[in-house]
Each structure stands twice: as C-alpha cells, then as structure tokens.
Please model this.
Amino acid sequence: MNKTTMYAFALFFITTKDGKKAMIGNRVRNQRKKKGYSITDLARAAKVSKSYLSYIERDIQQNPSLQILSKIASALDTSIDYLLGQQPEEPVKGTPKLDKEWEGLFQKAIDEGMSKDDFRDLLEYVKFKNWLDGKENIHNGGK
Model:
C-alpha cells in the first residue's frame, strides 16, 4: 500500500494503539487546545474557514483533503501523520527552547496585558519595518 492510499484509508478513521477509533477531529481539537489556540486562531493560522474547521473537529467532516490537513498540521506545528494517528504522540519538532530572557519578556508582555492579537500585530509591524529598512538600503545604494 503506497503512502497516498494509506492516507486515504486513514482519513476515514484512526485506530489508536488500544484498538479504539479516534477521529481526526479529536486530534485536531486536542492539539489546538494544547497549543492554546481558539478555533478562530487556528482557522486564521491555517487559512481554513472557521466553519470547515469546526466540522472537522466535530467529525461532521470526516474526510478532509490532504491539502487541508497539511495546512492544519503546519499551523499546529505537527504532522499529517500525527493527525492521522500514525504517530501516537505529538512529534517532537526541532524548535529551540526559549532562553530565560525571552521567557521573561513574554511573561512581562502578558502581565502588562498584551494579547495574542497584539503580538500578531507587533510581528506584522516588525515585518513591515524590516521591509522598509530593506527598501531604504536599496535606495541608499546598500549603505
């Protein structure tokens, strides 16, 4: 059985180690909650409609495409294999841990009332500022 056929078969249901059926929606919802995302947060990050994501989580939509699963897995920093039950636990990604200074800065921002949306806005501002700085360097001959 090739990998595509295996995915197609696994898309209908997932069988866990103990033989119980675990739907894809349960894994998506559990991973989303573990990451602290609302359904709106995940829909935005995965670029999937909120209603479609809700259908997946509630097992109304039991056969999402691999493209949709890929978007969701990426937004949750996990793999399609995990969502399909091919990996019993969340895979460990190669992301470095935050050092104490970063943890302190994040905690201070949270304590001061910074929301996730505020942080996203700040990230967009930094991207925009870096873009402007890059344009300025081009106009100044790279200086």
User: Anything to note?
Assistant: The helical segments are 3-12, 24-35, 39-46, 50-57, 66-75, 80-83, 100-111, 116-139. Confidence is low (pLDDT under 50) at residues 5-21. The two ends are 57 Å apart (CA to CA).
